[in-house]
Write a structure and sequence with these properties.
- The structure holds two protein chains of two kinds.
- By secondary structure, chain A is α+β, with helices and mostly antiparallel strands.
- In chain A, about 60% of the residues lie in helices and about 15% in strands.
- Chain A is built from twelve helices and twelve strands.
- In chain A, the strands form three sheets. In chain A, strands 2-1-5-4-3 form a five-stranded antiparallel beta sheet, sandwiched between helices. In chain A, strands 7-9-10-12-11 form a five-stranded mixed beta sheet. In chain A, strands 6-8 form a two-stranded antiparallel sheet.
- In chain A, strand 9 and strand 10 form a beta hairpin.
- Chain B is globular and about 40 Å long.
- Chain B has a five-stranded parallel beta sheet, with helices on both faces.
- The longest helix of chain B is centred in the C-terminal third of the chain and has 18 residues.
- By secondary structure, chain B is α/β, with parallel strands linked by helices.
- The two termini of chain B are about 20 Å apart.
- Chain B has one domain: Rossmann fold (3-Layer(aba) Sandwich), CATH 3.40.50.
- The chains are: A alpha+beta, B alpha/beta.
- At the A-B interface, helix 8 and helix 9 of A face helix 1 and helix 5 of B.
Chain lengths: ~600, ~150
């Protein structure tokens, strides 16, 4: 409840309790005041009458004495006025000190009373002297000269008037107080209404919230039930509190009768795995989350399922007890796929091993070729030479010719073996990728060719060439072969033209070309161009082994490029080759369309 | 110089044809040094360590060992390795003379501390030139430390 509302309620309570208290207090004070005023007025009147009585009693006593009826008691009565009146007058004066009108009247009364007492004294004195007539005259003078009755009545009436006046004031005040009380009652009523309405509204809101919460709970339960992933909630003793439809289906539970079941009993022992139960207890007791725990369960439908289990501890909704929220993902399909992938990988590894074996055999073969085949060749040539030395003068021209052929054939075969070994090495060795400046490689190849044939007249047109990523030594071989060929096959021209160009394809590939205006070849045989030891021309016209372009094609294939040629006999040839765009990591950039 | 011992040239070669050609070439070089032909690594080690058939040979290390790689029983690389591991043999110059130009053979030879690696040329004139030059260089021009 907000603080201001509490403060408001407290304030209302204070107002409801305190206001009537103060109002009642004021009213009782008023009543008390009226009572004290009435008392005072009665006292004043009583005093006034008492004074009148005392004076008259003394005068009556004086008459008795005059009538000769005096004794000591009468004598004392005649003197009592003189003895008692001053004190009574003082009392009266004290009581009416707050009222100037009454004081004036009392002043007059005092002088009248004193006058009468003085005449009484005269009367008594004359009586003692025996002057009866003088005494009687004095007594008569008393009532003639000092009239007391009207004064006493005035004082009494004034006191009564004052009381009336004050009573009216008090009555008015009482009227106001009553009005105030009525107003307070009204305010109390209003406050009470406010309090009641407010609390009613609060209760209504709470009820609404509870209804909403209830609906939300219902909705989330429906969601839990509808989710295809098996979800279940267990209490601290691993007894089921809630299982959703998917869970019930997976573990063969009856979705209609959901009695609490102990987890190890669920699914015909699918959950009786000790390690898993230990983990789940850890989740419950130590709040260790179970994260993607993979396990194989034999479910009641007779299938071994690979499931991934996630569990965490949560607070139960309606108590402090902890509950275990368990989700199960059936990943059997994925696991089987993984199994299959592993199997395929295994097979692939087998194949790779086979290929490695084959490569090793190839390597052994070429080693053997390089070593074992060369030795006999060397011997053939060597012993032909020794034979020539041995025969010396006995050797005729024909014999010498035969020995020449034997020697040169051995030499040629050695070269062929050497070429084959180079070709095989190009296929086997690892590519050492690095940035390669094609411009400098082409220039280097040209310089090399021109150094070997300084007498040739060749017009060169080498376009600016890019830097590519590749194996520098291999690409050097490419340029030396292509430019070397261009130089070689233009050797019968007096003035040859050789051009090197490059253009970039849409997908970033480079396409280089080397063109010449040399012998060319018949496109009919173009398919033989890049074969090992395949030649388009006679060795007597253009020397060569027919290995160069085979090497070039192998190198370009290893770089992910390709090579082709366009030619016409007698007009020249143009060789094109491509290199894919690639970065230093060796991955080629395949543009996805 | 007169009292200086004339050192032997060791030719270790299993191929009789190659050996014959090499011996011819060394003869053409007109060297004063005696040439001993051994047919495999085991014989070579026996000779160097004066064992077996060579237990009674005149003491002294050769001027150079011309060593083939591919041989029966013990190959040239193994001989080289053992020589370099033996304190009395490790300073002897060793030249590998092989048909192989395989990168792995080259690398291993140099790693083991060979003094030169020469591929036997297929061309016969080049072959004779090569062996002749080797003999002249290692037997005449090169200076090796004296015997201890």
């Amino acid at each position: 409840m907000p603080r201001w509302r509490l403060a408001g309620l407290l304030f209302a309570m204070v107002v409801i309790v305190a206001l009537p208290y103060f109002a009642t207090r004021v009213m009782s004070d008023d009543t008390q005041r009226v009572n004290s005023w009435l008392n005072q007025t009665s006292t004043i009147k009583a005093l006034a009458y008492n004074i009148a009585y005392v004076v008259r009693d003394s005068e009556a006593a004086s008459y008795r004495i005059l009538a000769g009826d005096g004794d000591n008691a009468i004598e004392r009565r005649a003197n009592s006025a003189k003895r008692l009146a001053p004190a009574l007058l003082d009392q009266l004066r004290a009581l009416t000190r707050d009222n100037p009108d009454q004081q004036a009247r009392i002043g007059a009364l005092v002088s009248v009373v004193n006058g009468r007492i003085t005449l009484l004294d005269h009367t008594l004195d004359r009586l003692h002297q025996g002057d009866t007539a003088g005494a009687r005259q004095s007594l008569r003078d008393t009532s003639d000269l000092f009239r007391m009755h009207a004064l006493i009545g005035g004082i009494a009436r004034a006191a009564d008037r004052l009381v009336d006046q004050r009573r009216r004031e008090v009555d008015r005040q009482m009227e106001r107080s009553r009005l105030l009380l009525a107003l307070i009652a009204l305010a109390q009523l209003l406050l009470l209404i406010v309090v009641v309405v407010t609390s009613e509204r609060q209760i209504g809101k709470r009820q609404l919230a509870e209804t909403r919460e209830g609906r939300a709970v219902l909705r989330s339960q429906m969601i839990v039930q509808a989710v295809r992933e098996p979800i279940a909630l267990f209490d601290g003793q691993l007894r089921s509190l809630l299982v959703n439809a998917a869970f019930a289906e997976l573990y063969g539970l009856d979705p209609k009768h959901q009695r609490p079941l102990s987890l190890p009993q669920i699914g015909n022992g699918a959950w009786s795995d000790g390690a898993l139960l230990q983990r789940l207890n850890d989740v419950l007791l130590r709040d260790r989350e179970l994260w993607d725990y993979e396990v194989v369960q034999h479910t009641p439908d007779g299938v071994d399922r690979h499931v991934v289990i996630n569990a965490r501890r949560i607070q139960q909704q309606d108590s402090d007890a902890q509950a275990l929220l368990l989700t199960v993902s059936d990943v059997t399909a994925r696991a089987l796929a993984e199994l299959r992938v592993n199997e395929l990988n295994h097979q692939l590894e087998g194949k790779v091993a086979q290929i490695t074996d084959v490569n090793r055999e190839l390597e052994a073969f070429s080693y053997s070729v390089s070593h074992d085949l060369r030795a006999p060749l060397r011997h053939i040539a060597g012993f032909a030479r020794k034979l020539r030395q041995h025969l010396g003068e006995r050797m005729d021209e024909t014999g010498s010719h035969y020995l020449d052929v034997i020697g040169s054939s051995a030499q040629r075969m050695g070269q062929l073996i050497e070429d084959l070994l180079v070709f095989s090495r190009l296929g086997r060795g690892a590519l050492r990728l690095q940035p390669v400046d094609m411009q400098s490689l082409a220039e280097e190849a040209r310089a090399l060719c021109m150094a070997e044939a300084p007498e040739r007249h060749i017009s060169w047109a080498i376009a600016p060439l890019p830097i590519v990523v590749g194996d520098e030594n291999m690409l050097r071989t490419v340029w030396q072969n292509l430019i070397g060929n261009a130089v070689k096959y233009t050797s019968q021209r007096e003035h040859a033209h050789i051009a090197v160009e490059v253009q970039r394809g849409r997908n970033g590939d480079y396409e280089f070309s080397v063109s010449d205006d040399g012998a060319g070849f018949d496109m009919q045989y173009a398919d033989k161009l890049f074969g090992v030891f395949q030649r388009m021309h006679r060795a007597s016209d253009f020397p060569g082994n027919g290995i160069g372009l085979a090497n070039v094609r192998r190198i370009l294939a290893r770089h992910g490029g390709r090579i082709w040629a366009v030619a016409e006999p007698g007009l020249g040839a143009r060789f094109h080759f491509t290199l894919p765009a690639r970065d230093l990591s060796g991955t080629t950039h395949e543009r996805l369309s | 110089m007169m009292n200086r011992h004339i050192r032997t040239i060791l030719l270790v070669e299993d191929s009789m044809a190659d050996a014959e050609m090499s011996l011819d070439a060394l003869r053409e070089a007109n060297l004063a040094n005696p040439v001993v032909h051994l047919q495999d690594g085991v014989e070579c080690m026996d000779w160097l360590q004066c064992r077996g058939d060579w237990a009674k040979r005149e003491l002294g290390n050769p001027a150079v060992v011309l060593l083939d790689i591919k041989m029966p029983r013990m190959d040239g690389l193994e001989v080289l390795k053992r020589m370099r591991a033996d304190d009395s043999l490790r300073r002897i110059p060793v030249v590998i003379l092989s048909s192989s130009r395989e990168e792995s053979d080259l690398a291993r030879s140099w790693d083991l501390g060979v003094n030169a690696y020469v591929m036997k040329p297929v061309d016969v004139d080049q072959f004779f030139n090569a062996v002749r030059t080797l003999g002249q260089f290692w037997a005449v021009l090169n200076q090796a430390p004296d015997y201890e």
